[in-house]
């Protein structure tokens, strides 16, 4: 899948994220995904506050995560988030990689769907307010459709 937009952030695994063996607790990867997702959405000026102001909530309706190799206390990692689907839902893929070796440690994805906040209705097509934010990233072919 070709990404429409990709962002990357670096972090060091903190002590409070690891278990007694110094290995990152599995649930923390979802938080790392969330931080990278927020950065990705901020880059198109549609972070969670802007979503709310536009009248839409975007709950996660599906997620998948695969642990390839453990990360450990004080390890420097990069978290990569890529927007790969947007027409009917937002699908963002993630990779957590060792910052020094680039070895993949974890991968996954989240799927979010727009819900009109006033009616609480699920939108089957991505609302125009999001389409407007990404219009400059779309190939000309998609703009004419």
Task: Give a short synopsis of this structure.
With 145 residues, the protein is an alpha+beta fold.
Q: How would you portray this structure in words?
A:
The chain is built from four helices and eight strands; from the N terminus they run E-H-H-E-E-E-E-E-E-E-H-H. The protein has 145 residues and is an alpha+beta fold. It has one domain: Thiol Ester Dehydrase, Chain A. Strands 1-4-5-6-3 form a five-stranded antiparallel beta sheet, covered by helices on one side. Strand 5 and strand 6 form a beta hairpin. It is elongated.
Write down the secondary-structure element order.
EHHEEEEEEEHH
- The CATH class designation is Alpha Beta
In CATH, the topology is named Thiol Ester Dehydrase, Chain A
Distance between the termini: 20 Å
- Overall shape: elongated
Helix content: 10-25%
Find the structural class using helix and strand composition.
alpha+beta
What percent of residues are in strands? 25-35%
Uncertain stretches of 5 or more adjacent residues: 141-145
| Average of pLDDT | 94
List keywords for this structure.
145 residues, alpha+beta, Thiol Ester Dehydrase, Chain A, 8 strands, 34% strand
Write the layout of secondary structure elements.
Layout: E1 5-12, H1 28-43, H2 48-53, E2 56-57, E3 60-67, E4 76-85, E5 90-98, E6 104-112, E7 115-116, E8 121-122, H3 128-134, H4 140-144
Antiparallel strand pairs: 1-4, 2-7, 3-6, 4-5, 5-6, 7-8
